[in-house]
């Protein structure tokens, strides 16, 4: 259990609470010399791990190198809210919605198989997630979400405002639903468990950022302390793909923040009747809120761009203040103090579609899950490996038929537009979490 800060104390910054109480682990090596491999996978999040496991399964004699810029289990994938959803994007045609739902369901099934096969302790919670509305714009958006779920054939249970108040301790909701097939996990523990489960022909390197990739035969990837050559390369680093010249003008990074609030241990019923619940906004760039025992995890979408480790403290304190205001509106009679705040990044596209496929000969990429990357990223990683191995399947055809991400302008033009758009959404959905 993390230490509870008293009122007015400054919270911890950039400490990922999902890793609290985890025993120390032996570090993986970093790239410190030139390496040669059959396969190079750049990015060890859920997509990269699924791709590595698939390649190792189908090519047990191949040498597979998996690299990540961060320590294993401490990148953006481990800094999410931990929602595992079969369908997170509710716009688009009926065909596209059904395809996304099918892929998401397959991703959940694959994760479940891995967790059971390797006995991964990731605080698995299959009670579903709540999607709820407090104001009229949110209620209208919730109606559209119901229609999208109906078109896809997805399972959900209607819940009333009174039921939401009973479950979460938060009054004021007009209407909602429970997306029954959704899960909640500790994303850091899940990622670390998946890393440990990789077969021995996957060589794992952490703290080894790939700075550039050069088309050649074989491909060459530069790191600060060594070069990696590989016949084929898979790019699975999501929001960082642009830095390698992939998915430019299609996917852009957005920085999000999670604030952790400590509840009153003497009155846990004030946070609802379920000890572990999760609720998300009706708007895709909105916030999410999870209760994990006596703590509340509030995630907000904040700014465009990658996390800035040198961000001044006053900027982080301003975000904490916004989180405190949001919590005070939801729990006006509770003393909830922010004890931690950290940031991560997601890959976002203008139309909610991911970037998937062969970018160049021998170079494959899957990025841009719009904040729903655990299930969708997992199945996409497996399918990306299948694509590189020229293995056909109905699921691979399904993901290849999804619309491409819409074109977007360069960052200096895009970011001011997105900032204004998010500001408008925050005003329109100001009553929502």
Plain-language structure description:
It is a single chain. The protein has 433 residues and is α/β, with parallel strands linked by helices. It has a single domain (12-428), classed as 3-Layer(bba) Sandwich (FAD/NAD(P)-binding domain), CATH 3.50.50. 30% of the residues lie in helices and 25% in strands. It is built from nine helices and 19 strands. The radius of gyration is 21 Å and the shape is globular. The two termini are 25 Å apart. The model is unreliable at 1-8 (pLDDT under 50).
Strand content: 25-35%
Going across the biggest sheet, name each strand in turn.
1-17-13-16-15-14-5-7-6
The total of beta strands comes to: 19
Q: By CATH's scheme, which homologous superfamily applies? A: FAD/NAD(P)-binding domain
Q: What's the gist of this structure?
A:
This protein has 433 residues and is of the alpha/beta class. The chain is built from 9 helices and 19 strands. It has a single domain, classed as FAD/NAD(P)-binding domain.
